[in-house]
């Protein structure tokens, strides 16, 4: 493997004038670089899926940095990590920030880790400046945000907020046939402990999450950061077509029960489904499993996951309803069976004016042009947003690429965002 050095690549074109007021771009680069080594792939991406030893290793690395920054560190039964600094008004609920460190298979090095490292950088900056915040400050690392292993994301934040259906969760199995309980055991967790991660009171006053944009709007506007106005709510549905496997040569075309042709017809419908309802909805089939998957065998069973999102719950749900209806129609017309299971349905989260106003003031203070964005991706902030005021700051993504080794955000942009987050947290502390 050719040598891969994320830290040095980030530092190569860094504008070091942004290392000031306690915020260190060099420290951000080092920490992103160290995290990139955990699960590094031959393509220089990262595979660090939720509930894996690699995810826990990344958490342990950040937990060490938290302690060095003077934070007390805890980890709940779901694996969510919390680093905490006491405030002058220490009985108050915390002002908080954070993200995740798990990845999709062959993912990038900024989606998730940047939000964690930027949040930690706020604490580091205060330490260098000798500042004690007015209220407690907490940095969160949420477990299994991507949801790769069990086809359902935001697992840690859903567990914490009580939005996870544990009766369903314990029935899940991963691609290797391991049950949810068996997988928990590999990371030293239990179902009982996982269930106890639910909080009756979040003990957070506000939460701000930093994330790469995963789009091109900031890049096209030549801006480092933007203000998110709303988070689209994802709905994941498993659809299984079951026909009859048969010999590809001996079965006439008019006597087939081909599960894959049924699924293919649905794929084409899903591509068009959002535009029938909404201008902001999107729909994707990114995961398909064909059985028996032989070149000379008619597919007898096809399992797929639909990912349907919109910033309006009503239109999102209508798209889902239409897709489910179409799946039944296709199954009937092609003489195959269909089974449909909802895996996840999360409400969209609008960002309230209270939090948007704080970010507006920070952008004005820093003389940054404002760019307002909508997040089509789900984030841990959306789970918290059902209970407390939340905000999101997006950072420019090169070519809009994410979930890919080519995912890239410059160190200058990362550091600018850390400054924006620090000032936003400080303004939250004042209220």
From TrEMBL:
Residues involved in Zn(2+) 2 binding: 111, 146, 403
InterPro entries, per the entry: Amidase_Cbmase, Bact_exopeptidase_dim_dom, Peptidase_M20, Peptidase_M20_dimer
Cofactor: Mn(2+); Zn(2+)
Binding site for Zn(2+) 1: 100, 111, 211
Pfam families: M20_dimer, Peptidase_M20
The record's free-text note on cofactor binding: Binds 2 Zn(2+) ions per subunit.
Molecular functions (GO terms): hydrolase activity, acting on carbon-nitrogen (but not peptide) bonds, in linear amidines; metal ion binding
Keyword vocabulary terms for this entry: Hydrolase, Manganese, Metal-binding, Zinc
Annotated transmembrane regions: none
Domain Peptidase M20 dimerisation: 234-331
Subunit structure: Homodimer.
Protein family (similarity comment): Belongs to the peptidase M20 family.
Annotated PANTHER family: ALLANTOATE DEIMINASE-RELATED (PTHR32494)
NCBIfam families xrefs: hydantase, PRK09290.1-5
Protein name, UniProt field: M20 family metallo-hydrolase
Protein source organism: Paenisporosarcina quisquiliarum
């Amino acid at each position: 493997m050719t040598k891969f050095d994320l830290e040095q690549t980030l530092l190569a074109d860094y504008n070091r004038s942004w290392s000031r007021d306690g915020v260190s771009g060099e420290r951000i680069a080092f920490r992103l670089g160290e995290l990139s080594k955990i699960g590094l792939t031959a393509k220089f991406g990262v595979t660090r899926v939720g509930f894996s030893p690699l995810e826990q290793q990344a958490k342990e690395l950040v937990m060490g940095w938290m302690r060095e920054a003077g934070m007390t560190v805890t980890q709940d039964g779901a694996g969510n990590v919390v680093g905490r600094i006491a405030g002058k008004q220490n009985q108050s609920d915390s002002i908080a920030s954070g993200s995740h460190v798990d990845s999709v298979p062959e993912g990038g090095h900024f989606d998730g880790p940047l939000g964690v490292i930027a949040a930690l950088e706020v604490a580091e900056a205060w330490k260098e400046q000798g500042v004690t915040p007015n209220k407690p400050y907490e940095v969160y690392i949420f477990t299994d945000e991507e949801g790769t292993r069990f086809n359902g994301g935001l697992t840690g934040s859903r567990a914490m907020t009580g939005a996870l259906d544990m009766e369903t969760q314990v029935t899940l199995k991963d691609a290797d046939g391991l049950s949810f309980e068996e997988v928990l055991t590999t990371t030293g967790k239990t179902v009982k402990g996982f269930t106890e991660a639910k909080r009756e009171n979040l003990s957070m006053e506000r939460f701000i999450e930093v994330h790469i944009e995963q789009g091109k709007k900031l890049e096209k506007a030549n801006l480092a950061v933007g203000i998110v106005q709303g988070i689209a709510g994802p709905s994941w549905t498993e659809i299984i077509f079951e026909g009859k496997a048969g010999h590809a040569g001996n079965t006439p075309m008019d006597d087939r029960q081909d599960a894959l042709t049924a699924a293919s017809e649905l794929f084409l419908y899903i591509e068009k489904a959002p535009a029938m309802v909404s201008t902001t909805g999107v729909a994707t089939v990114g995961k398909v499993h064909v059985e028996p998957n032989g070149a000379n065998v008619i597919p007898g069973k096809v399992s797929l996951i639909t990912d349907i999102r919109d910033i309006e719950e009503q239109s999102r749900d209508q798209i889902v309803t239409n897709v489910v209806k179409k799946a039944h129609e296709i199954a009937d017309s092609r003489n195959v069976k269909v089974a449909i299971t909802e895996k996840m349905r999360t409400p969209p989260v609008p960002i309230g004016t209270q939090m948007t106003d704080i970010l507006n003031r920070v952008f004005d203070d820093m003389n940054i042009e404002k760019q307002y964005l909508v997040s089509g991706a789900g984030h841990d902030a959306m789970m918290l947003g059902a209970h407390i005021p939340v905000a999101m700051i997006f950072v420019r993504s090169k070519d809009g690429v994410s979930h890919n080794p080519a995912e890239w955000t410059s160190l200058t942009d990362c550091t600018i965002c850390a400054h924006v987050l620090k000032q936003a947290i400080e303004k939250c502390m004042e209220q």
